[in-house]
Amino acid sequence: MSDLTSSRDMDLVRKILFALEKILPGEVFEFDSLGGVPSARLDYHLELMSDNNLVKVYDKLADSALVRLTWEGHEFLESVRDDKRWEKVKAEMSKSGGFVYEMAKSIALDFVEEEINPNRVQSLKSQLIRRYNNLNELEEQSANYGAVAVPLELKNQIKAEKEAIAELEEKLKILTG
Model pTM? Predict the structure, then answer.
């Protein structure tokens, strides 16, 4: 397989999802409906999408396939339907130097939630304040034990709070730009 067909293109995945959404159940997806994308590239991407449960492929022919969106495919498409949201997701993913589907989906869903619930940022900020207060209390308890005698359970609680804080800070960073 050449580099042309073995590299994953998430814009193409999104384009395929849009095309599949338009065809009726039982209709064949004609590869030429995507305007000039090589059949081998489309076929490869359908395989990738099937591997990730975005589509169900029933039969493949030379330049077409009997295929449908899965529930997961519909859900992902809804999360990245809006062009501005899609561009924001891609921008976030480019910061990591690649595109990880699960992370992209999570980021897209965070954007959807922010659009539905504009108070989400304030809610996350409130959660973050509570977590910081809890971490301060745990660290004060830890200081009372001295460095060598801190119980493992308390160390684990501190570690969990720090991880939760980092996750909340990352979500806030994504939502607030």
Answer: 0.65
